[in-house]
């Protein structure tokens, strides 16, 4: 294997430690950053995510407010809860766990969150602010990828970056962040012609597709930095479930300069960046400067 392994687990732990240190300082000044998480229904994966977000929030010294509602909760009731959280000065960050049950309008719900408390960075105001180069709360997963890339490469200016995937939560904000750091950015998707050739152009290749091991080693430019956002559950040879990324790790690691593993790459950065965003939101609410190195 040629590639260096980008250790998101260690980097994420370091980010969390920095957040925790900032929280100590903020609490000494009388402010306890608070994160409210809203979960509807019993989806097992969402329950696991919400539990680990709660644990990480408390470990960072922040206040955690959990709101668990039945799957059948109506839109008006959910919007009323969001309005209460918007008005609550102890709550600096609000996260509504997605996906929402089908009878709810996710865009309407997300856009009801005060943009200053939108720690997922999904509000249309934050998306617009990111796209127009204004300070914004940025979606956690792409923010984590950006931190890993800056740590690995220093300046991203002039680098050829290819982002595979154009979702609002990963692909598009990732592309915006790379553009903001002056990379030359291509966004690829399911209609892209000759995707392997497009990927081979990339100094920075970010895979956010949701297709197990789709990107093979011969799609990777020698020496490229590969960030694998994908989390796919597949059956291993003995029938047990295992997690793989959107990149075929072994063949890509043989050519890349550096690569994130799955698990242990991007995943741990997402939760670390949620804490970083909550800290940023709390600082903003109290007129304090945004914490250095923890924002885009
Ligand atoms: P979406 O399903 O919303 O988007 C997938 C994107 O991939 C779409 O833009 C789609 O294109 C594109 N795509 C699908 N198939 C192909 C193909 N064959 N060739 C090229 N492009 C293709 O997924 P998300 O962005 O939400 O998530 C992507 C992956 O990242 C998933 O595996 C998810 O589990 C993981 N993830 C991981 C997180 C983490 O913390 N590590 C957080 C969030 C997501 P089109 O638009 O044309 O349909």
Question: What descriptive keywords fit this protein?
Answer:
alpha/beta; Rossmann fold; six-stranded parallel β-sheet; binds NADPH dihydro-nicotinamide-adenine-dinucleotide phosphate
Summarize the structure in words.
The protein is α/β, with parallel strands linked by helices. It has two domains: 31-119, Leucine Dehydrogenase, chain A, domain 1 (Rossmann fold, 3-Layer(aba) Sandwich); 140-267, Rossmann fold. The chain has ten helices and eleven strands. The chain has helices at 8-28, 44-59, 75-87, 106-111, 124-131, 140-153, 171-180, 195-200, 249-253, 267-285, and strands at residues 4-5, 34-40, 63-69, 93-96, 160-164, 184-188, 204-207, 225-228, 232-235, 241-244, 258-259. The protein has a six-stranded parallel beta sheet. Strands 3-2-4 form a three-stranded parallel beta sheet, with helices on both faces. Strands 9-10 form a two-stranded antiparallel ribbon. Helix 1 (8-28) runs parallel beside helix 10 and helix 6 (140-153) packs across helix 10 (267-285). The two termini are 32 Å apart. The relative contact order is 0.18. The model has no long low-confidence stretch (mean pLDDT 97).
* CATH topology-level fold name of the largest domain: Rossmann fold
CATH architecture of the largest domain: 3-Layer(aba) Sandwich
Order of helices and strands: EHEHEHEHHHEHEHEEEEHEH
CATH class label of the largest domain: Alpha Beta
| Total E-strand runs | 11
- The N- and C-terminal alpha carbons lie at a distance of 32 Å
Largest sheet: 6 strands, parallel
Beta strand %: 15-25%
